[in-house]
Amino acid sequence: MITDERRAFRRACRAFNLRYSSEPQSGCFTGSAVTRNISPGGVYFECLSNLPIGAVLDCRLDVMGKVKELRFLARVVRCDPSGTSMVPAFGVAAEFVRSYGKSESELRKILASS
Fold first, then answer.
1. Which of 52, 64, 71, 103 is the most exposed place for a label (fewest CB within 10 A)?
2. Cα separation of 68 and 53, whole Å?
3. What is the pLDDT of residues 49-89, one digit of tens each?
4. What is the domain range of residue 84?
5. Which residues lie closer than 8 Å to 37 by C-beta, 6 or more apart?
6. How many domains would you assign to the chain?
7. pTM (2 d.p.)
8. Structural domain includes residue 41
9. Residue 64 belongs to a domain
């Protein structure tokens, strides 16, 4: 089978609450969103901010049933308009560049069990 898929990990359509804030060198962005899809390699979410490509975000995922949040450092690789003219929104694709603690292994477990 021939495919154009370049992702290293399979994405899962899972909705987790996501809070993000930018690293100082990326400007000043903070917000919250709900993930549309996620994998151990990255995340896609919609937000109200037009985040610049290359911005580094401190992402915190609230996973139901878990006491602790999962935390990742992610780099924005794509940000496209996805809302209406009345409510502008942006679809953001970000690749994880670092995980904190056991966040990556916990995310893998959660995604494997769904």
1. 64
2. 29
3. 889 999 999 999 998 766 578 999 999 999 999 866 677 88
4. 17-112
5. 11, 12, 13, 14, 43, 44
6. 1
7. 0.84
8. yes
9. yes
Nearest Cα to Cα of residue 55 among 70, 32, 77: 77
Structure tokens at 94: 């970000």
Residues 42/6, Cβ–Cβ less than 8 Å: no
| 2: exposed, middle or buried (Cβ count in 10 Å: 0-12, 13-18, 19+) | exposed
What is the CATH number for 31?
2.40.10.220
Token match 């400007």: residue?
27
Residue type at position 26: S
Instruction: Say which residue the tokens 């109200």 belong to.
Output: 48
3-state class (DSSP) for residue 52 = coil
Core vs surface per residue 70-86: b (16+ CB within 10 A) or e: bebebbbeebeeeeeee
